[in-house]
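Input set for joint prediction.
Command: fold jointly, output tokens.
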Amino acid sequence: MNRDESRNELGVLRIHKNVISSISLIAATEIDGVKRVGRDLKSGLAELLGNKFFSAIKVDISRNEEVKVQIPLIIKYGYNIPEIANRVQENVRLALEKMSNLSIKEINVNVQGIERG
Amino acid sequence: MKFFTVLGIVFYAVMIMVIGLALIVFALNLLLPADINNLLTFAQGNHNSRVAIGFSGALLILISFSFAQIILGKFQREKTIAFTTSSGQVTISLSAVEDLIRRLAGIIPEVKELRPNVVANKKGIIVEMRVVLRSEANIPELTSRLQDITKSKIQEILGVDEQIIIRIHVAKITYDEKDARRKKDFEQEDRSTIPFSGYGRV
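tokens >
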């Protein structure tokens, strides 16, 4: 499934994976101590081709509409990694629940590197 | 195992077998260069076959790309420290820990260069460091300090309770001429007396 779908009396509301990914990206980078969201092969290629909005955040939506988000992160030097990761998870969960009413199953954080702030 | 992983493995096994068979057939002289030439000429002459070959090429590139990504992803997943929180899993790449240790070289002035290698296994986190020191350093004192700093920094930043083993290998001791000259100049300046500087002291 590529998008989350809900129906009301007027029609169908679909939320694309990219929307979930964008919300997660903004919520993650809001946290003090997060340098930026990391990269993978696809996002690296997209950035080379000039698409700066293609993030490496992976979103999986299961059949029972549960959302699983994977966020690669680069953290600033000097910050406590578990604390930052926890705060990112909480902020992303809050942002997704507030903006999309989705049921969030997991928010997995993958710390890829550390950079000077 | 995921469907695409199985497909990728089967595809590569079949391709390698086909290449092997082709080489054997060629070695046994069952396939003549003229036959290959005829086949290629036929393929180039026919529009449909050229389209099919083009699509096959594109498909091969896509399969290779996704297979490489799967392998790289697995490789990356294995080299991590992981723990679970209430919201999900947190994985810390060992290269991130290496980045962190590399930054420590800036804290200790006697360390000129530091190359860490971090391994996580059942014993705990093993850090192997290859260091280049400046000549004025006291090695036992410095290495002990470096071990302490590294250990406390890893514990503080990663927040892990696992055992941390730090091995240091002093690879080189450098003599920095610029530093030595600066030190010499400073000492000379210090030694030169200021006129009447001794007067007025009680």
